[in-house]
Amino acid sequence: MMNHHLLLIIHLMSATFWVGGHLILVASYLPRAIKEKNQNYILNYEKKFEPIGMLSLILLVLSGILMAYKYGVTIEHWFEFATPIEKIVSTKLLLLFATLLFALSAQFKVLPKLNNNIKYLPEMTLHILCVTIIGITMLILGSFVRFGGY
What we know:
150 residues, mainly alpha, 4 helices, Copper resistance protein CopD, membrane, transmembrane
């Protein structure tokens, strides 16, 4: 089994790419797309970010689950919310599921429409903002592990 410190480093580096990538999208590309009414800013960024973003998300999930097990929060204890660490793990898992729902919706519903029509930019903006806020929330929740949970 992998060393906890190495898992933490992988988790933090992956979070840096995942959350940082979304913050760059929100702070730079999204305002430009809205201002210029040009969805290609988002579509082009999405194509460039997706490979590293998906790898980061996969590494986040795997390292997070392995670290949860190291803290004694095995699958049997997910969503029990009985201990402070279980609360963090369970809340982060719920937020992960929400992220996945937004990602699936964006990938199969919004992006294909946005490709040909700028009128779907507000819907994509909502998806982008929600995933970014969820990512930041998960990052903050993870910081509470150092203090034994919440």
